[in-house]
Here is the input.
Amino acid sequence: MPADLDQHAAALVAMQGIVRRDAAAFAMFYDRHAPMVFAFLCKMFTNRTEAEDVLQETFWQVWREACNYDSSRGSPVAWLVQIARSRGIDRLRQLRLKAQRDAGPLEDWHDKIQTQPTAEMTIATEDAHLAIHNEMDKLPLEQREAIMLAFFNGLTHQEISKRLLTPLGTIKTRIRLGMQKLYEAFKERDCVND
Here is the structure.
């Protein structure tokens, strides 16, 4: 059985276990996919704490709503990434609204959002950003553009379709293929556990 089929089958088995509230299946699913999701979230957020919070919210939603997963609509990993993307976009919107609400003079606002990350946190975040950037650069332009618009600009598939004047099905295929290539690349880099 090809490796990607093994991964898909393992994710499906884990998802079935999560539906039955099997903590071991959830732990396996988390251990296997959390590093890839965290790297993705670190690209969305400059603040590592926000990425960690959204990672926790993402997997909490998987635990609560595993029964809503529909295998006919995509793989468990695609469902997981979609949840992370949605939670990330929600958090970014919350942060923007809070910044607008709390904004005073520009200098005060700038001071409020400044963080003092440790050197270790900065290196880890920079490494994750660099790895994602390098792998994104290897994707075909059409896939890279669709993924950037979806995951980093927060556009829906329909909005991307309209913006790029490309059929909706083509956009979905480009995103799916690109995400599959990224997953494989991070698996080879040992960022995603087998």
Notes: The chain has one domain: 3-188.
